[in-house]
Structure formats: structure tokens, C-alpha cells
Prior knowledge:
Largest sheet of chain B: none
Oligomer: heterodimer
CATH topology of the largest domain in chain A: Rossmann fold
Order of helices and strands of chain B: HHHHHHHHHHHH
Largest interface: A-B, 29 and 26 residues
Mean pLDDT of chain B: 89
Radius of gyration of chain B: 20 Å
Shape of chain A: globular
Strand content of chain A: 15-25%
Shape of chain B: globular
Amino acid sequence: MIEVKNLTKSYGSFIAVNDISFKAERGQILGFLGPNGAGKTTTMRIITGFMPASDGTVLIDGLDIFANSLEARRRIGYLPENPPLYGDMRVVQYLRFVAKLRGVRRSEVEAAVEHVVNTCGLAEMASRICGQLSKGYRQRVGLAQALIHNPPVLVLDEPTIGLDPRQIHEIRDLIQGLSGDRTIVLSTHILPEVSQICDKVVIINDGRIALEEKLSELPAGTSLEEVFLHAIAKEGHLPGATSEETLEEVGAGHSD
Amino acid sequence: MRNTLTIAAKELQGYFVQPVAYVVLTVFLLLAGYFFFALLHQFDEMIQLVVMMGQADQLAQMNLNTRVIDPLLHDLSIVLLIVMPALTMRVFAEEKRVGTYELLLTAPVRTGEIVLGKFLATAAFVLIMVGLAWIFPLILIVFGNPEVGVMFAGYLGLALLALAFASVGLFTSSLTQNQIIAATSSFGLLILLYVISWIGDAGTVSGAVLKYLSLPDHFSTMTRGVIDTTDLVFFLSVILVALFLTQRSVESARWR
């Protein structure tokens, strides 16, 4: 459903994303993990068509995001790092606007808005002005706008950042409830999030893919944290697990 | 087309929610009112002087159009020159700053639709502004006997001038995230178009070209009551060129 092939993005001499490739199948929830500055947001922005790659391709449902931009974009719902809310619009007003913008048919706009308001728990805040919402609700409205046109692909950039534990739990439940036929890519540096809701994990570090694996196929006995630190250490950028031990050995060391 | 109207509707609604628009409207109309009163007052004094001096034959040469409406329109054009950059500076720059630019560019909407939508909303607001200033000719019609056709031509010129200013303002707004830079550049560009004929040599081809590019010359023709296709084409060209450049500027985000 989402195919990233040899994606590279450079700003002058600085290479933000270096020849990365990964895939997300239909119905999968892919966790895009990495330390801050690894290139997660840049990759998300390229996948959704906000900025072009310096090299490589991104295919959404077989459509090239650059060559067939309009069609590809129709299939995507995107929640950027900062929810793109218009501070002076009311929540419902804003959602109606996004619905129309994203191609929801006139006659179906109201129903779509209502559905998404209920799904994201926004019923109480429906008439509030976006600028007056708390962080948690802003995030929810951001998620609502990503969902409103019922896209087959959802790209969520750090959807639970800055939320309190209860809100985090709610958003995670929400995301899990959304999967089904949808392909979801969510980027985060909160490990428990990935182990709880994702089917597959891609670890990026310093612009390169350090690991691409289904969670079910990770070595038994290893925690995601160990996997993560190991992947980072292999690249030689973080202290922690020694790179000499393989993941299997780390896992085996725990099962005693 | 539908996307264009959606964006235009949202943008226009936004104009009536932000304080900047109301301040611009108030300043414009207040100053217009002052100028109108001042000009009428001077006109009145002049008439009395002429009558007192016994030069009644001079009266035929003094009319409301040339002594009141024409200078009023020129004064208003200067007010617009100052006030339009302030109105348009946020159109694109604000979206970039707040993060909603990402929403627009990742939606399945063409760049042209975004630019046109925003322009239509700005144009509507500007036309409302100029339309409200039509109260002054109305007052003259009720109490005096001005030539309505000439006034209409003058106001048409003012409207076209305002639209040209708006399109230039939109362009500079699309170039930056910083609204002050957008406003200042817009102001600078407009002043340049105002004085561009000053360096021309009369009688040469280059001089004629510069004279053609001079905004006030085309405006003056219209305030004198002449609706010439040359002037209409000129204003439309300025608007189209500025909008085209804006579209290119917004589109370039997809290519860098």
C-alpha cells in the first residue's frame, strides 16, 4: 500500500534522509521509530507530498506521490507534527472545510463531520474555536481532519506527543480501532506505543533505516527498547548494548 | 472549481473574523470621509470666493467631479497603497507560520485553486471596501448634480487599482513566512510601479514603455471618466501576472 524506494532528501550538503526503503502492506499499522532528528518528519512530509524527495520514489496504492500527486494525495489522511488548525474557526466549521477540501461529496459532508466528531470524542468541543482548545483536543481535531474523508492511508506524525497519560491511552485506542482495512504509518519515539499498537516497526537513525521487521518476528525475549538501542548502537551513535551481541543473544540472555 | 470556492469561502469568512480586516476597513473609510469632507469644504469656499469676486463665469468650469471626486479618488488610491499590503501580508505567510500550509499542500487541491481561491476572497473584501466608499458619490447625487458616469468610471478605476494592489500583496505574501517582509516588499513594489515612469525619457521607446507601466497614469484616465480598454487590459494584466507569479511561488514548494 505504501512503498518507499531509495528515498533520499538532502538540504545542500546535509543529507536528512539517506536512501531509505520500506513497505507498509494494506491493513498494517507501521511504527516509524527513531530518535529526534533522525528524519521521521522529513520522511512523512515526502510521503504525503508536502515536499519532494531529492531522489527515490514513494508509491501510495501504486501511485507515485510526485508524478501522480493529486490522485495519490486523495488517498492519504495526514496529521502533521503540529495539528494544522485554523485558530479562528470553530471545530465543526474547520472539519467541514477540510472535508470539502479533501473531496468529500457535498451531501455527505455533514455525516462525515458527525461521524468523525463522535469517533474522536469531540462532541463537547464541537462549537469551540480551534484556537481555544487544549493540546489534547487539538490533537484530536487533527486526527479528525486526517480521517474525515475516510482515506485508505493514514500518516500520523507523533500523534501522542505532549498528551497526558489518559489522553495517550485514548488516542492509542482510537488508532487501534481505526486499522481494519486501513494502512497506518505512525511516527514516534515512544516505544510502548509501537509495541502496543503496531504490527511492524521501522527504525530510522541518522537518516538511515536501522531495522525493518514485523513485531511478531522480533527475537523472542527481547523488549522493543533493547531492539531499539541495539539498532541505534549498530550504527555507532548511542552507548548502551554492545554491537557485538546479536539481538538473538540479547534475547537469549533474558530467557534464563 | 469547487475547491477554489471552498477556499475562497473560508478565506472570506476569515477576513471578517480577524481584527486586521476591520481595522483596514475602518481606517480606509474614516480617511475617505475626512478627505471627502475636506475637499467639499474647500470646494465650497472656492465657490463663495468666486461669487464674491464677481467672477460668476468661472463657475461653469468648476464642477463636483473635477474638484471633489477626482482628488478624492487619488487620495484614496494612496490610502490603498498603504493599507493593502497590511491586509494581504498574512494570506500565505500566516499559513506557513501556523502550519496550515501543510494542510493545503497535502490536500488533493491544485496550487492554482489555492491561489485563485484566496484571491477571490481578497477581491470580494476589497470590492466591499471600495463599494462602501461609494457613499460619497451618493451624497453628491442627492445634494448636487455631478456626472454619474464619470464617477462610475473613477470608482471602477479605484476598484481595479485595489485588485491590482491585492494581487501584488498576495504574491509577496507567498514568498515568505514573515508578514512584515511580505508587507514591506508589497509596499515597495507598488511604489515602484507608481514612480516607474519618472526615469523615462520622453519621446523614446523605453520612455513610452515605462509610461505604460505606470499605475497612476492608467488610473488618472479612468478618474477623468474615460473607460479605455487600454487601461482595463493593463490592470487585468497586472493582476494576472501577479497571480501567475504567486502560483509559481506556491508550486515551487513542491519542487525544492
